[in-house]
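Page 42, continued from yesterday. The earlier attempt failed because a stray header line got pasted into the input along with the sequence. Redoing it now with the clean sequence only.
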Amino acid sequence: AVLQPEEEMALEVSVFLDEAQKFKDVLNILVIEGEDTSVPLTAVGTGTTIVCADPSATESPFGCQFTCKPFETEVVLQNMGRKAQTLNWVNPKMADKIARLNKAKQQGPALAKAIEAEQVVFSISPERCILRPKESLAFTIRGY
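This time it went through. Structure tokens are written below.
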């Protein structure tokens, strides 16, 4: 841009932060017929670096489903950050079932069999993974 003497111009700087941390840098403005200027910049990344590759999948990837009919869908997650991230999916109902099953095994095989027969409605695989920087992985969500 060319500025006349005493003229001002607003300059908007946009950044894409790829980690939830504080960033510092310097913006150097080179002036052809004058003194160069350095502007210190700071920005803080917030939120998570894990994003869903298909933004529409975050709303309801299942659509309409009937009960007692198995279905599955795939969701791709991507680590946009600089650091590896560990993803660990937890199904509280499954954890509760395992705890009740362990307790029931001590009380007798009939109760344990009844608990084993209970179905967990949703499962996801893989249950645990490490997403390296800029890596994507497809997760399969199954419902029953």
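Notes: The mean pLDDT is 85.
Reminder to self: strip header lines before submitting.
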